[in-house]
């Protein structure tokens, strides 16, 4: 997937992702094939062997807290640096809104 950076909204989203302000995804998919992690405990978790993705959205608050973006092409940040940048940016935004 790629961003159409000539679209102002896509460019804004891309820039916010690079800054760390948007760092989560919502992913919608159909499960076509799966198997249990442990055949003796079939409700203990599943391995998805084949899925069909039909939607991926950038969101501010994900349903699954582990669905965060760790790397944007051409831009890589450690988790600690990313969280610090987020906190600083949120403080900056709040001070501008006050």
UniProtKB/TrEMBL annotation:
The family database entries (Pfam families) matched by this protein are listed as: Peptidase_S78
Question: Its GO biological process terms?
Answer: proteolysis
| GO MF, one example | peptidase activity
Q: Which InterPro entries match?
A: Peptidase_S78_dom
Domain Prohead serine protease: residue ranges: 5-75
Which of UniProt's keywords are assigned here? Answer: Hydrolase, Protease, Viral release from host cell
Output the superkingdom of the source species. Answer: Bacteria
Q: Which residues cross the membrane?
A: none
Protein name (Swiss-Prot/TrEMBL): HK97 family phage prohead protease
* Source organism of the structure: Streptococcus pneumoniae
